[in-house]
Structure formats: C-alpha cells, structure tokens
Amino acid sequence: MADDISRIAGLDFASVTPEEFARLVKGLSDKEIAGIARDGALRKRVLDEVFRRMERQFRPAAAGSLTALLRWRVTGSGDNPEVVYETRIADGVCTVREGRSEAEPRVTFVMGDAAFLKLVSGNASPVTLFMLRKVKVTGDVALAAGLTRYFDVPGRPGA
Q1: From CA 13, how far away is CA 140, in angstroms rounded?
Q2: What confidence score (pLDDT) does residue 57 get?
Q3: What domains can you pick out in the chain, each with its CATH number?
C-alpha cells in the first residue's frame, strides 16, 4: 500500500490523461484508495484535480439548456473530514468550487473516497453504486442517473 501512495503522490496530474487516471484507479482496491485518502494533503490534491477536470470534460452540447447545482459530499475517515465541492451547470458552462454555498442544490451526492474515484473515473456504474448504497443521492434522481452524459468519462459511451 505504501507503493500505491508513493505512486499517486509522485504523479504530475497535469500530464495524466483521464484514461491513464481511470486505469490507475481501476488497479486499486477500496482498501488501497482508503490508504491513499488517509494522506490528507494527497487526498486534497487528488480531489482538487478531479473537480478541476470536470470543467474541462464538460460536454456543453449534451447539457443544452440545463441549469443545475450539484453538491458532492465526499465523506472522510480518520483525521480526514468530509469535503464538499459544488458543480454549477448553466448557460453551457460548468464551473466548480470547493465548499458549500447557501444555494439549494438540485442534486446532492454523498459517498466515500473509493466510490467517488471509481465513479468519476468510469470504473463503477452510478446505478450499481447507488443500489449497493455506496452512493446516496438526494434531490433530482433522474438528473443524477443521467449525469454522466454531460461529461467525457473514460470507459463510458460517448467519452
């Protein structure tokens, strides 16, 4: 597990393609991801990069006139507290911010680090994660179910 932490910690995220990131996540167990997440600085770096990429991997044509605020609560463990990010889709643009705003989200997702990384890397089906109760969804469940069509996600049709 120390090798996994070293391997992830040594990555230059700017040079890792979404496909390479997906392959990396696919090779990790939930336990290994939890080990990586225990390093608070590394966890923040990984989460920040994933959310930064959401803006770049957004597919405005697929979103059309969609307007929505999505709140992502990634639960922590041990010394790492829950972190919150928000994704706003409006006027064909996706913007991301860390932290919780006062605005009411259209959808809120709650999940642990492993489920989150598997979901955003295309290594797990959102429906399966929901059915296994690894992801909790509140709000517009229909929007949540179709959310992947608005982003280029490795391993998903249209990506």
Answers
A1: 32
A2: 92
A3: 2-150 (3.30.1050.10)
